[in-house]
Amino acid sequence: MNATDQTKATKVRAAESACPRPAAVSTDIVPKTAASGMDFSLRRASEVDAENAPESALGSTVNWIRDFLARPHRDVGRAGPVCPFTPMALELDTIWLAEISESEPDPQRIQDAVEQCRQVFLETEPREGSMAINKVFMVVFSGLDASDAPLIDAIQTRMKPNFVEVGLMLGEFHANNETPGLRNPDFRPLRSPIPMLVMRHMVESDLPFLKRELDTPQVRGAYLRSYLRRLGGTIRRNYFEQAVEALVQAEIELRACSAPEAAR
User: 97 near 61, Cβ under 8 Å?
Assistant: First the structure.
């Protein structure tokens, strides 16, 4: 392992140890983003267009949103844009971006910044109703590159449960993301030129990301209960039945894991 690899490994280990286990978080107070110790602010995509050069980190991110997420792609496996909600979000100007430019950010400070963005997201309109699904916050790490993907992945894995618990999703985007498309396993919809963490409201089609077998039965169960609690009355029957079936399976696996412990 060379010096660069050792540095990356150290950053990932720091991310894993710095990010605490999910816990209930009060949303009564909206914190200021500066409280994390990082210098950044949230700006709408329209403000980025007006204030940032197209080749800047935020400018190129907005262009990527328009040119990739908001447009059809031959490899998606269905008609319509890569992200079906993005065109409306651009029209409503409900995509917000924050830039963190540090090249070696402290994992704890990243976590604090993302948590503060989560709090602000929950307090920013639209907070509910059909329009809420068009609101997106993107935390763009302009000081990082593809080699820092493990750091982004580690933080996303640690923080995702806190988001799902309150009906949100947290996605990791970077150039090395190998998550396949829902309809085409060879498509990589979560690849972006600049690493970022993206938060938005949970929607019906998120079910496959909440019942993945790579998550423990306990985590899957928590995800699926939140999904059913928040969307169970609005989702289509086949999604409801899949979610219930996956929850039952997670509970069976969890009890099977617990049985040997109880027998000791």
Answer: yes
